[in-house]
Amino acid sequence: MFIENLVVGIQSVAAELGQAAIYLSVFTAIWAIGSLFIGLHIRNPNIVKSGRNAVIATFGLISVATSALVFGFITDDFSMMYVVEVSSAAQPLLYKFTALWGRMSGSLLFWLWLLTFAGAIVVWQNGKETDTLVGYSLIPIAIVQLFFIVLVTGLVEGVYNPLDRFPDGHAKVDGQGMNPLLQTPSMAFHPPTLYIGWISLTVPFAFAVGALASGRIGNDWVLRSRRWMLFSWIVLTVGITLGGHWAYQELGWGGYWAWDPVENASFMPWLLGTAYLHSVMIQEKRNMLKLWNILLITLAFQFTLLGTFITRSGVISSVHAFAQSDIGWYFLSFIFASTTGVIGLVVYRWQRLKSANRLESLLSRESAFVLNNWLFVGLTLIILWGTLWPIISEAIQGEKASVPEEFFNKVVIIPGLLLLFLTGAGPIISWKKITPNNFRRMFVSPLLIGLIGAVAAWMFLAYRAHAVVEFPTAFLTTAAAPVISVAVEATTKAAANAVMFTAYVVETAGANISTQVWRFLTFSKPFSTQSIPIYSVLCVFASVFVLAAISSEFYRGAKLRAKRQESSFLNGLWLLIQRNKRRYGGYIIHIGIVIVYIGIMGSKGYFLLESDSLNLGDSMKVGSYQLTLENVLQEEHDNYDRSELEFKVEKNGKQVTTMRPARHYYFTAGQGDQDTIESAIHPIGLNNLYVVLGPLPSNIDSNTDVNVSVYHNPLIRVVWIGVAVMVLGGLIAIAQKSVHPTNTSKA
User: Fold this and answer.
1) Which of 175-184, 368-377, 498-507, 600-609 is predicted with the least confidence, judged by mean pLDDT?
2) What's the pTM?
């Protein structure tokens, strides 16, 4: 009884306390900005300390507000509007908690809490008030916090305060419940990992701005933000993969990536962050690309805000997006204002940003990294254009035009293959300039092994197709020149353009160039669905080359360590990784990327699909597997009913397994009663057998005809394995501590 009264008592004031905390945080954020700026300007450490304390106070206040909302979910406080929108009494406890980010208002509060937490960590990690770099870096963090605080207050049109109650003390009997598609384990962790990854990018961006403002344009800001950047990259990798896994399990189309606008919104900052992680090595090693690195990290941060615009404005349709709202335009305004501020600081510090060294040769590690950067940026621009095309086409033509998935699949092939090759070439090519000796020692063996792998792949594909694999003539006549141009002119803008247009030129050889450019930009040319085996052969060649190149790096280093320590090869390998975690952790990431490429090649290029309408006792085949519908089952749960079909799966007359795809029918689902797809997935080695049901009545019997689709997805599990290897490499790399310069004077 005491506990119940206590809960009721806290419920009566929790929302009001949370709202008060949000409004107070407006003042603490403004105080942090003002105190830090004034204190640093007049060099008063006490005022700077006050600003730092205000950053921590903002975190404390937003923590109170977030806790109040979570308490409302857990205790089913249906006097709160947001709780009614995304929760219900029957909703499992896990999904009551994850309802925090189930819709726009709560997701913004959760984003803000993570952002204030990051700001507090920066303060705690850097304890000296006299550190001007940290002081100036906290100002942009506080500015971004203030922007989100203003949104969460509910004073801005398009979003209401997530702690608002119904007027006149009114309370609902029950809530509408969260969207059933979000009530899955993958979706419980996918959004927060993406949020954490995006928000972590704020800190490297803030350090870049702090370096510009303080005049310390050396490597100090790079070293201080290195772990933040790696952490963001690792978490974004996990978050994007969880999203793909969720789509694979819940959407029922047999795939994991469809170039959906919201998928692209998460992928573009990842591409830019990956480019930054490579280019920043040139700054550390050769004191070059200072301006480029600041621009890259600024772009990566701004693309997180652009992604928020895409998901929250409603101007682009997506299964992942929130409802239409005017809030997206506030994000565009903030992007414009913050970018303008960075450009102003860049102009102010222009002389200090000039590189001390220049590229000495196009055949060098620096040039390989520059080409790597142009490819990443080029891919980002391609994906951005395709993502925003519905908006652009509406502005030009008066109606939204959709962009086919196959457009993205085609245009990323050649840039992607070049990036895969550079994954192996970058680590083994020498700095400054490659020598004949370096080429013979580092490249000849991996290239020969790669060629052997390509020939083997060619023969396998020919055998598989029972025909000679056709090398597309268009590839020779139209793709070779741009690709060679890219390889030679790595540092020029023309090279990046060549990469961007090569894949499309392959499809449109012999036509007028200006016409083809327009068709490319407007997506007006239908794409062929015929696969081109040569891309698989090139993928195998590049993959084997990369594995051979990186393996040789591990072998030589471990052998040398073992010889010096007079120990075993394995001990030498362990010591090698321990002594340079950043370098060899990066190599492990590259191995993971190769594995992912192989998985994508198999699962995207060689899947099988069969669809049929079945009744009890009917069978269908996909590849060498036969599925027979043997039973129809019905189950009742607290907040949904389950209709399930049981299939016997056989291969060569022997039963392999039993699979049970289903549909769930939710009683309350925010948007009214609705059903969800529950795919059945059976692992077969590195492959998957995937069964999904078409629409069903809520009550089915043995006489009901059922539409069934069965996929055989080869190498699909290789994708998940590759991501795990990438994350392992990232964790090894992030374990290496950064050594900060002891001299804090202006660089």
Assistant:
1) 498-507
2) 0.86
Q: Side chain identity at 549, as an amino acid letter? A: A
* Least confident interval from 110-119, 307-316, 414-423, 497-506: 497-506
The span from the CA of 657 to the CA of 627, in Å, is 10
Bridge partner residues of 626 (DSSP):
621, 650
Residue 467 zone, left/alpha/beta (φ > 0; ψ -120 to 50; rest)? beta
Q: Within the chain, what is the greatest distance between any pair of CA atoms? A: 84
CB-side neighbour CA atoms (13 Å) of 699? 0
pLDDT interval class at 1 (50, 70, 90): low
**pLDDT bracket for residue 738 (50, 70, 90):** low
In the numeric block, which tokens belong to residue 602? 């198999």
- The structure tokens listed for 483 are 């690709």
Total residues found in the chain within this entry = 747
What gap in Å lies between CA 510 and CA 95, rounded to an integer?
A: 56
Measured between alpha carbons, how far is residue 640 from residues 86, 91, 247, 609 in Å? 16, 10, 21, 30
Token output for 318: 């997506």
Ranges of H-type helices in 153-260: 185-200, 202-214, 220-250
Burial of 657 (0-12, 13-18, 19+ CB in 10 A): middle
Q: What is the distance between the alpha carbons of residues 509 and 102, in angstroms, rounded to a whole number?
A: 47
Q: How far is CA 490 from CA 188, 426, 549, in A?
A: 42, 13, 21
Over range 308-336, report the average pLDDT.
Answer: 70
Helices (H), 126-184: 132-152
pLDDT tens-digit series, residues 612-652: 998 888 999 998 999 999 988 888 877 778 888 999 999 98
CA nearest neighbour of 363 among 442, 434, 288: 434
d(CA 253, CA 461): 26
Q: Dump pLDDT digits (tens) for 661-685.
A: 998 887 665 444 578 888 999 999 9
Question: CB neighbours of 633 closer than 8 A, spacing ≥ 6?
Answer: 642, 643, 644, 645, 646, 660
DSSP per-residue letters across 637-701: -SSEEEEEEEEEEEETTEEEEEE--EEEEES--SSSSEEEEE-EEEEETTEEEEEEE----SS--
Strands (DSSP E) found in 286-371: none
Sheet containing 706-713: order of strands:
608-614, 706-713, 687-693, 680-684
Mean pLDDT of 399-425: 88
